[in-house]
Design a protein that fits this description.
Layout: H1 6-9, H2 12-28, H3 35-48, H4 64-76, H5 82-106, H6 108-124, H7 133-146, H8 155-169, H9 176-191, H10 197-224, H11 228-235, H12 240-243, H13 249-256, H14 260-263, H15 265-274, H16 276-283, H17 288-300, H18 319-340, H19 344-374, H20 377-395, E1 403-405, H21 409-416, H22 440-448, E2 454-460, E3 473-483, E4 488-495, H23 496-504
Parallel strand pairs: 1-2
Antiparallel strand pairs: 2-4, 3-4
């Protein structure tokens, strides 16, 4: 007879492990086609090729994500599997730290809930992809940990907190919201006479001083390197367009409902307002300051999603804070609920509701992974990647640059392993992100004029063939040129002089 170890089964680390196992197909079987993922990993490889971000290759993020990508590429010799292993291990470490922190201050039930809520939210917010958001959130969470518990009374902890926020800022500009949120939380405590004015000012000075250290170092390197104009244009000017996007609350809600830690915040706040016993329970908790800080940071860092309603990864900078806060509220509510109601039926109903919610999102994660496996995305992309590399190596010396014409050119550049002919590895014809980014049509002129040694062209299957306008190039059809998942056909154009040189050699 098999003996069931309920202690292991009910462990929050077991819950997190199950979340990661169920989401593993999204980490390891997804195709090479997520836009941001390809951009950041490709720029990381280009750094190893000697290119300088902003000057030689354009993107609008701070440098942290590029140099992390470069480090992964350097260690793994740019193997496609390495970033996926790194992301999976990072998710496990991040999740385990969140559980440990929650359990330390709010107990086992809150830790068990956060294992599920954070684990599912993290995956749905594309934590399986190489985005900036999860790394920004990681250092933002580390900043909260640095000033939690008894450490908040130590002056140097606030300096460390500021430094950690600046590390988050190295990955995404919205990390400055963490700084503002923490200052706001301390101001609220001061106005509520929970914190003296002297302590408030001391904490703010240390916090801001710590935050300033790393950006100052980065700016010095940028100026000395002579790339200040390119850096400022990319990292600051190119983000203004995001703030100018109109707010659509309906679309925002559609985005929020996809992430359990985000939308569960709304009913939890509502419960807190109407349930006096719950409010009193939180007030008497020794860690009230930490729970309030988590809520303020989580809500304020969610504000950018009001302008970005198209993609779940934009919630990544806020979900860890909200996941912990929601778990705290649900845990406290359950304990108060048990004291008020002895009815097993009512308790079972509450458990059933929470279980149903978590199972619904778990089913969504499993379904997403199943789609990746059933469509065979990874195998298709790897086959295409090897074919592209083989054709380019056959006709072009390794130092020759190429041009990619595609709706997702960064993906093709990443698959090719080659240096781009121009500094822009994606296109926006309207100039929405940055007016210097060429349109797809403008970039195609480099092929029409014969400037590009080779071009990889990805054509939608619904689009008519227009390749007859590229004179002076030899068309090389890939054996697996049609990608039904991407609904595209990929061909390579080799400039005639390179093509003939190979045939005459």
């Amino acid at each position: 007879m098999i003996k069931v170890n309920w202690k292991i089964i009910s462990s929050p680390y077991t819950a997190l492990s199950l979340c990661l196992i169920l989401s593993s197909p999204l980490f390891f079987f997804r195709g090479i086609g997520i836009f941001d993922d390809s951009v950041f990993l490709k720029i990381g490889e280009l750094i190893l090729d000697g290119l300088v971000p902003y000057r030689d290759v354009f993107d609008n993020k701070p440098p942290g994500i590029y140099y992390l990508g470069a480090a992964i590429a350097a260690v793994s010799n740019s193997h496609w599997l390495a970033p996926r292993i790194f992301l999976f291990v990072f998710a496990a470490v991040f999740g385990a730290w969140v559980i440990q922190y929650t359990n330390k201050y709010w107990g086992r039930l809150a830790a068990y809930l956060v294992a599920w809520i954070f684990g599912l939210s993290y995956t749905i917010a594309q934590g399986y992809s190489f985005h900036t958001d999860q790394f920004c959130a990681f250092f933002g969470f580390a900043a909260i940990v640095a000033i939690s518990g008894k450490r908040r009374h130590i002056k140097s902890s606030w300096l460390i907190c500021g430094i950690l926020i600046s590390l988050a800022f190295l990955f995404k500009q919205v990390a400055v919201i963490y700084l503002a949120a923490i200052i706001l939380a301390q101001l609220t405590a001061t106005l509520g006479q929970k914190l003296s004015l002297q302590s408030f000012l001391s904490r703010c000075i240390m916090l801001v001083s710590g935050f300033a250290i790393i950006p100052i170092i980065v700016v010095v390197f940028v100026i000395v390197g002579g790339i200040w104009h390119d850096f400022y244009d990319a990292v600051f000017n190119s983000t203004i367009s995001f703030a100018k996007k109109p707010i659509n609350l309906v679309d925002t809600f559609k985005l929020w409902i996809k992430i359990p830690s985000v939308w569960l915040t709304i009913p939890c706040i509502s419960i807190l307002f109407v349930n006096k016993n719950l409010r009193n329970s939180l007030k008497s908790n020794a860690n009230l300051a930490e729970s309030f800080l988590l809520l303020i940071v989580g809500i304020l860092s969610l504000l950018p999603t009001l302008h970005q309603t198209s993609n779940t990864h934009y919630t990544g900078t806020s979900l860890v804070f909200l996941a912990i806060w929601v778990s705290i509220i649900l845990s406290e509510f359950w304990q108060n609920f048990q004291n008020q109601f002895n009815s097993k039926n009512i308790q079972l109903l509450l458990i059933s509701i929470i279980t149903f919610i978590l199972l619904t999102y778990t089913a969504g994660v499993v379904w997403g992974g199943t789609v990746m496996i059933r469509q065979n995305r990874l195998a298709i992309d790897l086959t295409q990647m090897h074919e592209i590399i083989n054709v380019l190596n056959l006709y072009l010396p390794s130092e020759e640059k190429i041009l990619t014409l595609s709706e997702n050119p960064a993906r093709i550049y990443y698959m090719s392993g080659r240096i781009p002919l121009i500094k822009y590895i994606y296109y926006y014809g309207s100039g929405w992100l940055n007016s210097n980014i060429p349109s797809l049509e403008d970039s195609a002129k480099l092929v029409v004029s014969g400037v590009a040694p080779a071009a990889i062209i990805e054509i939608p299957l619904t689009q008519e063939n227009y390749l007859n306008k590229y004179k002076g190039y030899q068309l090389v059809e890939l054996p697996k040129s049609i990608n039904l998942v991407q609904q595209s056909r990929t061909i390579i154009l080799i400039r005639q002089d390179f093509y003939e040189r190979k045939n005459h050699s």
